[in-house]
Predict the structure.
Amino acid sequence: MDHPFDEATRRQIAQRCAAFVRSDPPAVASGLKRAAVALVLAAADVPDETAFLLTLRAASLRAHSNQWALPGGRCDEGETPVAAALRELREEVGLLLGENDVLGLLDDYPTRSGYLITPVVMWAADSVQLVPNPEEVASVHRIALTDIAATDGFDFITIPESERRVIRFRHFSQYIHAPTAALIYQFREVLAGRDTRVADLEQPVFAWK
């Protein structure tokens, strides 16, 4: 399916998000800290294509440095996941969006590091002037939706430390792992009209801390 960056695509994705029925939080969610990420749809580097924004976290960060991530972070006390995702997006890459730009929410994902992440799907009509915060973000990348639709874009492996499958998204010569890969994978499935659950997909051991 082609995804030109236009109003028709925005409406189509909004409809798919509205049709998606979120699952109940997994049993392990009790006691986890709430967090949110922004899955931002924006113009791709290639003309007339839609992409999502992906960041490479700064090397100076105390946790999960040099890892691929969607913009986001921990919810402040009393803050909704939508508000947190919008705030983190502004703080990390300088993109100011509002609740009217939110297309929907995906399933909450529990991480090994103690967070319950809510993915918030957003549409950025204008994302030309991104200003990454160097204290948090090393670089920002635009991943075309055609890349995640590819049949060989994702794979699943096993590790000795867990009975659960580890999901990976191959982006050029690198692998992007869960939780980010799991959230992207579920969004790809929503685009295809499928309700595919991802809370049981495992993260690599280096992401457990």
